[in-house]
Design brief:
The chain is an alpha+beta fold. The chain contains 11 helices and 5 strands; from the N terminus they run βββααββααααααααα. The longest helix is centred in the last third of the chain and has 27 residues. The C terminus is likely disordered.
Length: 284
């Protein structure tokens, strides 16, 4: 299979990770068989379960065994290894060989998953429409949503420039982002989240339009500086990220001076509230 035509995706079935690869030419998924086995059986040793089943299928002369392929998939140690995969039709056949109460729900999930990906391939705007509808249901207004979409696009532009300047690792992107945040807001992203009372939720989804605008300004300034000066590696990019964040800080200070109060809000958009562990103990 041509790797350029494949897109690796992590899909979730009832909170179980299913490593998947989308083949845009075939318009079909290849799924990690071990992950599907785990989702169907709940086995703590899905690899052994699959190995035993594979031997049984071979002995029975099942056609399914002839359709098993291998692709490099990311494992828990962060490295890529060859894994047994089956396309959607193969997974449907596999389900018939695995007694499981999850069989029917998994079939429905597969059908919806394939249809959704095909819809997105032929009309990518459907994905954008779904995102807008999601935010509207959450109570965001169209002006905020417009700012959020613009911020996503600008973030993509920034990470593209960082990549061109030698930034490859996820932790490096996080470090550079923190430099921007710290400079204009005085907080790292994790501290900003704590200030707003959120945990895994998106920080930007819990920002006001002014906070998004300042974040966007810091990242846009960083991008322009990085494109102009072409820094190499993490150290040089950190220097420019701080300068980009400073541009947002100047704007923030000016707004606050005229407004007479801070524009950094501790409010969030959650419809629920986290209970601290010590408070939870006191309530017991």
């Amino acid at each position: 299979m041509n790797n350029e035509k494949l897109k690796t995706i992590t899909n979730l079935f009832e909170s179980t990770e299913i490593r998947s690869v989308w083949d845009k030419d075939k318009e079909d998924y290849y799924f990690s068989v071990v992950d599907v086995i785990k989702a169907l059986t709940g086995s703590e040793r899905p690899r052994k379960y699959w190995n035993d089943l594979k031997i049984k299928l071979l002995q029975e002369g099942s056609q399914l065994s002839e359709n098993i392929g291998q692709l490099k998939l990311k494992s828990s140690d962060g490295k890529y290894y060859n894994q047994d995969v089956l396309d959607t039709e193969g997974i449907f056949r596999l389900i018939e060989s695995v007694p499981s109460p999850n069989a029917e729900p998994f079939k429905l999930w597969l059908a919806k998953l394939g249809r959704r990906e095909i819809d997105n391939v032929f009309d990518p705007s459907k994905g954008i429409d779904k995102m807008i509808d999601y935010y509207l249901r959450k109570g965001y207004d169209l002006e905020w949503i417009e700012s959020r979409i613009r911020a996503i696009i600008n973030r993509k532009k920034l990470t593209k420039v960082w990549k061109e300047n030698g930034i490859e690792e996820e932790y490096e992107y996080a470090i550079l982002t923190n430099e921007i945040y710290k400079e204009w807001s005085g907080m790292k992203a994790s501290e900003y989240k704590e200030y707003k009372g959120i945990r895994k939720e998106s920080l930007r989804d819990n920002m006001t339009d002014i906070e998004i605008a300042l974040t966007d300004l810091g990242e846009a300034a960083t991008r322009v500086l990085a494109k102009e000066h072409k820094p190499t590696g993490l150290k040089e990019n950190k220097t420019l990220a701080k300068l980009g964040g400073h541009a947002a800080k100047v704007a923030k200070d000016d707004i606050e001076k005229n407004l007479g109060k801070t524009v950094i809000s501790n409010k969030n958009s959650l419809k629920y509230e986290y209970i601290k562990e010590d408070e939870k103990l006191e309530h017991k």
